[in-house]
Specification:
The protein is an alpha/beta fold. The chain is 47% helix and 21% strand. The chain starts with a helix and ends in a 9-residue tail after the last helix. Bound molecules: zinc ion. The site of zinc ion has 6 residues, from loops.
Length: 256
């Protein structure tokens, strides 16, 4: 009898773990390149060549690595799995389709100031920070021209519903990213911040937007190009998400 109870309990636990749905959103894609920069590298024959690198490619690589770490324990989906254009509205629709519990949008930063450096994690909330407004302008770009009043009403409603969970998720994920990359790759921790990102508002669920380093910084883009950096970053995100899921009250378990 005890064995059957234990078995049922384990089944319930595994069921609960897989019933938590994570949607990972690699930013941009297709005709929307996101941040771009030119890098100069030396080839095997010692000759220098210059090529353009795109935020959309880094975001997809990192998102796939996060999925790989999470999928053994949790239901995990990507909003795009190859280089294609996906509107912000379509990404939000996918969150509804897969019944995502959390939404993780992955981006890389860009600034006209080439020295800007470091990594940061955002959750949806209002703020008055001018520097953050610049990041929002870039990431919200493909909703330009939309009715901002409607957007603000929607944003305020979603903030009310999600801000506590989103802030907690942002802190847990960011802390684990920092553990994996701050010292090892000498990356500046720019912290957890509020931001008005439309993709988070449209998804209408707890979510975060990760800026995993500055593509516009020539030194930093070298680090971002290393699979080791992206592996460590992905592990940090995955550990943070797992800890967040574990910290939540277990729904559907018998009350004893
Ligand atoms: Zn972006």
């Amino acid at each position: 009898m005890l064995k059957i109870t234990t078995l049922l309990f384990s089944l319930l636990l595994s069921e609960c773990s897989f019933s938590f749905v994570v949607l990972i959103d690699p930013g941009h894609g297709g005709t929307e390149h996101g941040a771009t920069t030119k890098v100069t590298r030396k080839n095997s024959k010692g000759k220098y060549y210059t090529r353009t690198v795109y935020e959309k490619d880094f975001a997809l690589i990192l998102a796939k690595k996060v999925k790989k770490h999470l999928q053994a324990k949790h239901s995990t989906y990507l909003t795009r799995s190859f280089d294609r254009t996906v509107t912000l509205e379509k990404r939000a629709e996918m969150a509804e389709t897969v019944k995502a519990d959390i939404f993780i949008s992955i981006h890389f930063n860009s600034s006209t100031e080439k020295k800007s450096h470091g990594f940061e994690t955002y959750y949806l909330d209002n703020h008055d920070d001018v520097a953050i407004k610049k990041v929002e302008m870039i990431e919200n770009e493909n909703l330009k021209g939309k009715d901002k009043v409607v957007n603000q009403i929607l944003i305020d409603l979603v903030i009310d519903k999600t801000v506590v969970s989103s802030k907690k998720l942002a802190k847990m994920v960011h802390k684990n990213i920092s553990k994996k990359i701050s010292k090892k790759f000498q990356m500046t921790d720019r912290g957890v911040k509020p931001g008005l990102f439309y993709v988070l508002a449209l998804s209408k669920r707890p979510g975060i937007l990760i800026e995993a380093g500055f593509i516009s910084n020539p030194n930093e883009v070298k680090k971002l190009s290393s699979p080791n950096y992206l592996d460590n970053y992905a592990k940090g995100i995955a550990i943070g998400i797992s800890k967040f899921i574990e910290s939540r009250p277990k729904r559907g378990l018998p009350l004893f």
